[in-house]
Amino acid sequence: MQVVTLGPEGTYSHRAARAVDEDVAFRESVSAIVAAVDNGEFERGVVPIENSIEGSVTETLDAIADADIAVTEEIVTPIRHALLAQSGNFDTVASHSQALAQCRSYLEREYPDATLEPVASTAKGVEYAREDPTVAGIGHPDNADDDLTVVAEDIQDRSSNSTRFFVVAPAAERDEGGGKSTVVVYPNANYPGLLLELLEAFAERDINLSRIESRPSGNRLGDYLFHIDFEAGLYEDRATEALADVEAIAADGWVKRLGSYDRRHVVD
Ligand SMILES: O=C(O)C(=O)C[C@]1(C(=O)O)C=C[C@@H](O)C=C1
Where is the ACT domain (predicted)? Predict the structure, then answer.
């Protein structure tokens, strides 16, 4: 089964995707990956959802809210960045905006004059560094070779840096089994206590929320979607009851159940 993820070869997404299948295809953006699963081109996609330093990957949140797909698994992997260049003589550091942000303190301390250039992925930045001696990339140290050396290792601002990925599949594969579930809620309403009511639906049934994130609906200023991850499977009565309450609260909007899933750790 071919799995599609963020390329080119050598991204952290690629490393996570290999845990799903060795046969990996690449796209240049998260939106393109989600679209390629939504339109049936691929049976699985792997997309970054959240980082322990930088928080949510908003492009992913927006893409999964718009698409008709399932989340079938989450993959958590440590992120240990290396600075890669042809020599120590560079004036630009190119990487994914998440990676640049995860190394912000290191870069400000060691290379305060360097130009930081956000590119589509860490591996894209590494490609630039391989082509241009004035550019360094930030990425996994395995991207080093004879032409590109590791100038510094473990440059992320916190050693505990880790990223969580979603494995996405066609909507028909939404499952109710698993220890966690993700839903996206668009209440299409705005009144005092709306969010409190949404949270109470889970709290009253002793369901722990592991993440709640609001994103602009795009319809009007101050109008939001809520991405909610909770620690229960959709097969559980308490989850069914909580979501019945949530659906009543969002009667003028919608609730998208992306599915239940378990966590896998990828450590190399
Ligand atoms: O550019 C990559 O290598 C990616 O897989 C993307 C991504 C991200 O979007 O968060 C994945 C893991 C790291 O947090 C840095 C970048």
Answer: 183-260
